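Dear colleagues,

As part of the handover before I leave the project, I'm documenting each prediction I ran so the next person doesn't have to rerun anything. This entry is a single chain, and its sequence is reproduced below.
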Amino acid sequence: MRYKFSSQKKLIKHLRKGNNNAFSYVIDLYYKKLCDYASNLARDSFNSEDIVQNVFTRTWLHRKKLNPNVSIKNYLYKSVYNEFIDQYRKDIAITKLEKTYIESLNMVYETPDKDDTLRLITLIKNEIEHLPSKCKETFLLSKQDGLTYVEIADYQKVSVKTVEKQMVKALLILRTKMKEKMIAFMFLMLGVKRT
């Protein structure tokens, strides 16, 4: 049985009270249209249904906050758009993270020949040698000796904050002087091989 509501204000009033019939009416009226709209945004019918279902779920959970002076249609369409944008941003962030992860894996599993490896190790050690003395000591205690920041602070008789600052400084210097691939390789070598 399909219920009808004489005005938007009455419909929203019933929604705010938790009237299931009012909610069913809104779903019947807008679900398909919102899925079509979301599908045009997301270009993916499965994803568009997820978007619309999320919007309806959130609308029901926050029904008491619905404004009787705002068109439910406009509210739902705007909510679908906002949900799409949120998912798109998350997907972009995940894609970037996955890309970085895959690139890191590729670097780890590439098998450079022995000469390249020795050349890189020499370059890395040379750059570390040119770090300011406190930076160098802090960096080597962390990366080569495997000490925690607390252990380094205790050993150097400084605060943990000072150790953090020295590590940041060392990493910034090394990052500027070396290419990203060499940095990844350096952390792999210093993190795995204790020399």
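The chain has a mean pLDDT of 78. The domain at 111-192 is CATH 1.10.10.10 (Arc Repressor Mutant, subunit A).

All the best with the project,
I.
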